[in-house]
Amino acid sequence: MAEEPLDCLIVGAGPAGLTAAIYLARFHLDIRVVDAGNSRAGLIPKTRNHAGFPEGISGPNLLRRMNQQARIYGARIEEGEVTAIARDDDLFHISTSDGEVVARSILLATGVVNIRPEMRAEVHDQALARGLIRYCPICDAYEVTDLPVGVIGSGEHGVREAIFLRGYTADLALIAPAGPHELDDAQRALLEQAGIAAIDGPAHNFQLAADHIQVDTAAGTRSFASIYPALGSVIRSELARSLGAEASDEGCLVVDDHQRTSIAGLYAAGDVVKGLDQISHAMGEGGVAATTIRNDLARRHPFMR
Ligand SMILES: Cc1cc2nc3c(=O)[nH]c(=O)nc-3n(C[C@H](O)[C@H](O)[C@H](O)COP(=O)(O)OP(=O)(O)OC[C@H]3O[C@@H](n4cnc5c(N)ncnc54)[C@H](O)[C@@H]3O)c2cc1C
User: Fold this and answer.
1) Which of 121, 199, 206, 218 has its CA 20 to 30 A from that of 269?
2) Is residue 3 part of a domain?
């Protein structure tokens, strides 16, 4: 006999997908989570802005605890990759690295990937673990208050990030990643007014010391307490877009107030949706998505015990 379709397949076990898994499992729904194992939260050495943890908590520890909580209520969480999704009437046919799955609904919680500066992977990972490279000023710029900070970037995005950081420190430089800066007169004036040095690249030869990171630029070697890459992100929305789901120009999924994408039965939560790329926001969207999924499914197949 063919297996019953899942009520929901969740793609991604970061804060968004795991929150949804906890809710959906506690709604007594038949769900599965498939996760490729590279949550951005897994890169956080210690988050200090996530409410409820006054001493801070590491990203991997937070994920472990959420994973454990979801399993207590029966969520199946599997390592693997979802490679394709097809829709047929009311059902989704999902190809994963472990075979085919059929589900009544899908929650995409696939997140984004930060674009890294040109540097060796092991140097990058060490720098990240020690707070010498940081990716999220909203999360952790507090930790570099009044310290020398470099931003690798240029153009509108680089200037925006540098100006945001100006609220934390006056000792700031914006370094172009690959060559001369691409800045218009207004951007140069804004940087000058804020006292932010604009240094041409390429930014290369990153060297780590006990409490600082050095980088070679066209103006010589510079040293910082921390460097923030502002090079953009790759939005992991291709599975939804392959079904025709509406997305922004950058690739962020467009959802309604209840996390529904433009494809019936397909929901999205977390960084893959345009919004504040934060753990709390991803969790909130995961909770909203799960409740919507439950109520939308109940309209088609009322749940009774
Ligand atoms: C260095 C760093 C520090 C940060 N610090 C903080 C902080 O202090 N506070 C804060 O609030 N936020 C912080 N953030 C941001 C936070 O990590 C993200 O906002 C959060 O992880 C988003 O959760 P998510 O569930 O949307 O995506 P993610 O956590 O990125 O999880 C997405 C998951 O989907 C999986 N996936 C993707 N595609 C597939 C596929 N096809 N098949 C199967 N699985 C797939 C991935 O493997 C991944 O596990 C930080 C981010 C970084 C990079």
Assistant:
1) 121
2) no
Task: Say what the pLDDT of residue 247 is.
Answer: 97
**Residues near ligand 1 (Cβ within 6 A):** 11-17, 34-41, 43-44, 47, 49-50, 81-82, 109-111, 114, 128, 135-136, 139-140, 236, 270-271, 277-280, 282
- Residue 193, token pair as written in the block: 């007014």
Provide the token pair at 189.
Answer: 């004036």
Amino acid at 22: I
Asked which of 189, 209, 229 is the last residue of a domain, the reply is: 229
Mean per-residue pLDDT over the chain, rounded = 96
User: Which pair of structure tokens corresponds to residue 35?
Assistant: 């996760």
pLDDT of amino acid 303: 79
Q: Do 135 and 196 have their domain in common?
A: yes
Range(s) of the domain holding residue 164: 116-229
How far apart are the CA of 208 and the centre of ligand 1, in A?
A: 25
Domain count, the chain: 2
Per-residue pLDDT tens over the stretch 151-208: 999 999 999 999 999 999 999 999 999 999 999 999 999 999 999 999 999 999 999 9
The CATH number of the domain holding residue 282 is 3.50.50.60
- List C-alpha distances in Å: 73 to 67, 120, 217: 11, 41, 53
Q: Which atom of ligand 1 is nearest to the CA of 34?
A: 43
